[in-house]
Hints:
Blueprint: H1 3-15, H2 18-25, H3 29-43, E1 48-51, E2 54-57, H4 59-84, E3 91-98, H5 99-116, E4 120-127, H6 129-137, E5 143-146, E6 155-169, E7 190-194, H7 199-209, E8 219-224, H8 227-235, E9 241-244, H9 245-254, E10 258-259, E11 265-274, H10 281-292
Parallel strand pairs: 3-4, 3-5, 7-8
Antiparallel strand pairs: 1-2, 5-11, 6-9, 6-10, 6-11
Helix pairs in contact: 1-2, 1-3, 1-4, 2-3, 5-10
Amino acid sequence: MTLEQLRIFAEVAARQHITRAAARLNMTQSAVSAAIAALESRHRVTLFDRVGRSIVLNETGRLFLREAQAVLASAKAAEAALMDLSGLMHGELSIMASQTVAGYWLAPRLAEYRRRYPGIALGVRIGNTREVADAVAEGRAEIGLIEWPDERRSVSARRVAIDEMIVVVAPGHSWADGRPRGVADFPDTSWVLREAGSGTRHAFESLLQTAGIGIGDLDVSMALPGNETVIGMVEAGIGATLMSRTIVAPLLKSGSLLEASVAPLPRPFFLLRHQERYRSKAADAFDAIVSAAGDGKQS
Length: 299
C-alpha cells in the first residue's frame, strides 16, 4: 500500500465518481480505476459497491477512509516540517473556508499572502462551517475559517473579524414597507434558509432562540446549500432570508433586494488551527497576515 494509492482512494471516496476523481487528480480514468482495484485485490476487500455505472462507498470503505485520512494528514504534516527548512521559499498551505468567508473576506488576505510568499502553493477549498471544522480536526486543512464557533477537540478558534447579518426581501415582499419588525414577527412570513451545518443557518437559529422560537414555528419554504441559490430564491419572491450584508450589498445597491427593518445581528469570523498537529511556518505566516489586518472589523 502506498501513499499515492491512499490519496487516490480518498479522492474517489470524496466524490464517489471515478471520472471526477481522475480529473481532480489530473490522472487518467484507467489509472485511478487500476489503483483502486489494486488496493482491493491486494487486501482482499471491497471498498466500493458498484451500482450500475456508479460507485458507492460501503461500510468497509467508510471505516478505511478514516484511517487513510489520518495517514495522509500525518504525511502532510511531515512534509510541512521539511518544507519549513526552506524558509518559506516553497511548500504548500491548505486552507478551508466557509462560503460566506470565502465569498469576500478571504480574497484580499490570500492576495497579500501570495504577494509575500509566491513560492507557497495555496490549496483552498470551500465548505460549510461544520465541514471546515471537521477538516481541521482531521488534519485535512491546516487553517480553517468559519462564521460561527464550532467546537472540536484540540482545535483552537480565534476571532478575526466581525460580520453583520441582515434580513433581506424582494421589493414586492410585505416586509419591504420599512415598518420595524423583530424576531417575534418571523413566523409571519416565509423563509428561504441555508442548509443545517452552515454558519449562516446557525446564526439564524441563534437569533430565533433569543425570542424563544424554534425553526419548526416558521414557514420554511426552502433550505438550500449555497448563498447564491438562497439569494436567487429571495429575489424571485419566495420569502425572506438572513444573509451577510457584504454579500448582498451589490443587490441592495441595485434595488434587486431590500433590507427589512430588523435589527442587524453581529457575527464573528473565526480562524481555526489544530493545537496538537504540526504547525507549519507557512500557516504561521498566514495567521500573522490575518492578525495584522486587525480584529473585529469587516473589511
